[in-house]
Structure formats: structure tokens, C-alpha cells
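Hey, quick one: can you model this chain's 3D structure?
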Amino acid sequence: MPIQLLHEFPEAVESLEKTGFVTLADISRQVERQSISTIKRRFGKEFAKAVAGIFGIEHDFEQAALFDRPAEVFIPEEKFIETFELEYPTSNTEFLKWPIEVLLERLTNFLRKRQLECQRIEWVLSDIHRQKELMSVYCDSSQSHWELWFKLTMIQVEARELPFEVDTITLECPHTLPVQRRNNLLVFDEGKKQVSSPDLTVTLAKLSALLGETAITKLSYHDSFLPEECNVEIPFNQQSNQQIPAIYHNILKPAWMLPTPALIEIRRNGLYWKGYLKLLTSPRRVRAGWRTQPVARDYYLAKRHDDSRLWVFKDNNTKQWYVQGIFV
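Sure thing. Here's the predicted structure for all 328 residues.
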């Protein structure tokens, strides 16, 4: 119902319209978020009394809201932590396989009952003298299957030398995530071998254990107007940002971006980069860096003599042409 029904209070109605109020429901939401006292202070006691009569508010305008808010319930994050004591201390990694498998199966049961997954687990190896060795195991995507975590854990265990005889193993999962929906490819060619995500994760973990954690990197999206700054390298054990803004979904942009834009020669017959180029589209303007160093570029789709499609731009400040990416 429109607020014009409160025609007995023309000044209040005019002020409400200027503020953006359209219906009586807008007034009720304002009272529910704050209180009727705010209406009373701004528009006077008589107008507040009329509003209170419409919505059935009593108690001399002291009611905090139209409806009582439910009490907030704090739900603490559930953490998994389990300990396994060995019958005899050992420095042989072969004797650690069974306790590790038992603890991981318990973790899987814990996660599945709560519809959770995790990307990092922590192992604490200790001896009878309370010496401790901390070992963190990462996975690029969240998982709840003990088999993959077992492979990743054993890669790290077998790649290091135990500093003491292990007496107790503790498994901790400090952070969990809700189970994520995943898209699977439809494979119609049964003879074609597909590289699964677990196989790739295990391979990367092996390389990381052999070469070091900083030797393996991956790409992550970085919010920037400049295309060459949208992809950044991060360590393998960090979670990458794959949430690309919707504004970029329908923009002409190649999957293969050059690390740095390559300079295009200007010859008598036109633009030349490993062959002459022909522009196929109208320009798309990109502006950035207005706080530091202003950048103004016009991007085009270009075609080379070998039918390769290139993403090129003209720097409007230097009047030079560059190749930014290649369509494959």
C-alpha cells in the first residue's frame, strides 16, 4: 500500500518520498531494523502514533522492532584431532603406514558424516621424550577420501629422515569446508586416457617433495585492469583464486597470454610480428593506472598470414603496437 494513504501528515509523506520510501512496507522494514523511536524523533509523536496504530505497536513506542529477533546461536567450527600410540617406538617409515591409514579413515568418517572436506591436514610425530616433528600436507582441491591423503602423506614421510623413534602419531584437521559441487567431463571415447585430478595432485606432490615447496608454482587470478597483471604465480600449496568477475566472461580474451607484451614492428606494408597482421575487429578501450602511471590501450583481434589469431593493442601514449596473447 502506498505511503500516500498517510495524507493526514503531508510533510512527513513528502520527506519519506524524498528519502526513498514508497510503500507502508518500507516503513515497517525501517521500524523492524531500528525502532519506532526513530520515526518519532524524525517525524514527530503524532505521526509515530499513527504508524504504531497501523502496525499494532504499543508500550509507548519503546518496542525495538515489529517482530522479536531470534536469539543468535553460535556454532563453533568443528576440528578433527586423533592420536594413535604405537606399541613400540620405530624409526622405520614402513611401520607408520598402518597407523596413518587408520587415522585417515577416521578423518574420512568424520568429514562424511558432516558433509565436509578439507584442503590441509597436519601430522605431529612425537617420541617418549616429547620431541615433536610437524608435517603439513596440502591438496590443491578440497578432499574427503583417505586414499588420496594417504598417498600425499606417504610422499612426504618417505622424502624425509625421521629425527627420532616415533612413539605417537597425531592427525589434526584444523579447517574444514562444506562439500563442493564438481563438474565431470563426459568421456565418449573409452579408449582415450584421461588424466584425473588425483593423479595430477599426487604427481605435483612428488615434485614438490623432491624439488622443494617453492619449486612448484601455479597461476591464480588477480583483479587488475591490465591483462598481464591478471595472472600471478603462487606456491603450489596455496589456494588459487578462480573466481573471475562476470564482466570478463563475454570479453574477447585469449587463453594463452604472453608473460610480457611483445613489440610489433611497423613496416611499409603494415603491422609485422612474425608475419604481417590484419586487424579484424573494432577497438576496445582499456584505461588503468590513473593514480600512478596512466595507461590507455585499444585492443583488437588480428589475423596473421598463417591464420593465427592474435590479441594486439595500441598504446595510445607511446603510439606503439604490441601482441598481448594468442588464440589457440
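One thing worth noting: The chain has three domains: 3-61, 80-178, 246-327.
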